[in-house]
Amino acid sequence: MIKKIGDFDLVLFGGTGDLVMRKLLPALYHQHQDGNLPAAGRILCLGKREAPKKASKKSGAALFLARAQTLVKDYLGAAYQEAHWAGFAARIEYMQLDAREAAEYAELTANLAQHPGRVRVFYLATAPDLFVPICQNLAAHSLNRGQTRVVLEKPLGRDLASAEQIIAEVGKYFEENQIYRIDHYLGKEPVQNLLALRFGNALLEPLWRREWIRDVQITVTEEVGVEQRADFYDRAGTLRDMVQNHLLQLLSIVAMEPPSSTDADAIRDEKLKVLRSLRPMAPEDVYTKVVRGQYRAGASAGQPVPGYRDEPGVPPDSRTETFVALKAEICNWRWAGVPFFLRTGKRMQERLAEIVINFHEVPHSIFGPHALKPNQLVIRLQPNESVRLYMMAKEPGDQMTLAPVYLDLDFHQSFKTRAPEPYERLLKDVIRGDLSLFVRADELRTAWTWVAPILTAWENSTQEPKPYTAGTWGPAASSRLLSRDGLCWHEEE
Ligand code: BG6
């Protein structure tokens, strides 16, 4: 049974930053507008950027709310209902606080002391180097008491060692079951639907294995480039930004064994087993099984766009990857020999996130020369989420001509309700104390361990990332990765 959302104080560190303004406040607003938040639910936004030096706190708060309202309106578009704004704004308090300064936590402490019985959530939407000082300061003011949770946003480290450090340091102040490591891909409706599809239907499970599945493709591509994030992105690159977290999480959900229940640890135990079964990449594998690319000037939505190295803030000789395609293998009884192809990149032809399950060909065709296309299950995360099962059927007419058609699970049609954005779901889960869609420390560690040899091989290599033209599907080497196994990416069929 779903747990109730109790009264809460949600404290947003990094409260004036992009994530809070563009994702968290709009998500909370939407939930408020839909009547899903309890009346006693406060949002404390902590920041220092907003108020001009001599402005009073009041004008800082007013400025903050005005900016938040504009962004919420933009984000929700037609769904925004002005009538609800005042009620939502009444939940918000804006407070200036330098997260590194222990003395500045006194006001926050006094503020939270007004509601000792509430669920307390500290959401660290900050740079990771602030995670530890914030946790230290929260502990120093005894703010971790009762039902207290801390939410950590990615990036959770830049390699195994730094992730270990965050895990250990935050672990000094909070128990593992108080720590909510966000991977917003887990909050996407179709990802949860994958669980429903796999474990709510008897039909798929017997087929969900090496005997029937030829290969799996997981693609997450974006049309946008590096945008205004060159400072972060050029130090991270796509492997750290997308593969280590979002793509490996998707892979683990596709490949996991049936968990014993929907309990957080039952699900996370099974995901962890998948991550632990990934065949480690030997240094020489990195050259044959991983493609790294970087976009050059091209076009996006019909407009010319610069290459990555010409983006503001990117060094002209940057070797940071903006594209990764790789072949992963899962060494267990269910999946031995089934390649899992992962691909993600910026400035690609389309914004697309989908999981494609390619089944084997029929063992023998009775239809003579007619080409039979193997069955395919396509789970589209975005845009236009859908699940389609492609099958061969006879075309109407005298001839026995076969063509692929699909069975379509159209969620909007069937359920006639909107699909909430990931942060709407995830924020409510934190408040109600449900950890199922959050990453446990051992998962994080295992994912970093798996990508580590790739990072090392690239660091030691003199090779440049493979160039690809902005607005395409990536470098030619990405297609070759599959054609070596006689396969091709879904859109190339
Ligand atoms: C973030 C990455 O985690 O995910 C971004 O840091 C990326 O670089 C974003 O753009 C993609 O998320 P979505 O939900 O828009 O596919």
Please, could you describe this protein's structure?
This protein has 15 helices and 17 strands. By secondary structure, it is an alpha/beta fold. It has two domains: 8-153, Rossmann fold, CATH 3.40.50.720; 186-365 and 418-492, Dihydrodipicolinate Reductase, domain 2, CATH 3.30.360.10. The strands form three sheets. The chain has a nine-stranded mixed sheet with strand order 16-15-14-13-7-12-11-8-17, with helices on both faces. A six-stranded parallel sheet has the order 3-2-1-4-5-6. A hairpin with a 7-residue loop joins strand 15 and strand 16 (402-409). Helix 6 (160-173) runs antiparallel to helix 14 and helix 9 packs across helix 10 (264-277). The longest helix is centred in the first third of the chain and has 20 residues, at 57-76. The mean pLDDT is 93. The structure holds 6-O-phosphono-beta-D-glucopyranose.
Overall body shape: globular
CATH class of the largest domain: Alpha Beta
> What name goes with the CATH superfamily of the largest domain?
Dihydrodipicolinate Reductase, domain 2
Bound molecules: 6-O-phosphono-beta-D-glucopyranose
Average pLDDT: 93
Q: What is Rg?
A: 24 Å
Strand-residue fraction? 15-25%
Biggest sheet overview:
9 strands, mixed
Structural class given helices, strands, pairing? alpha/beta
Distance between the termini: 43 Å
Number of helices: 15
In quaternary terms, these chains amount to single chain
Strand order of the largest sheet: 16-15-14-13-7-12-11-8-17
Please indicate the count of domains: 2
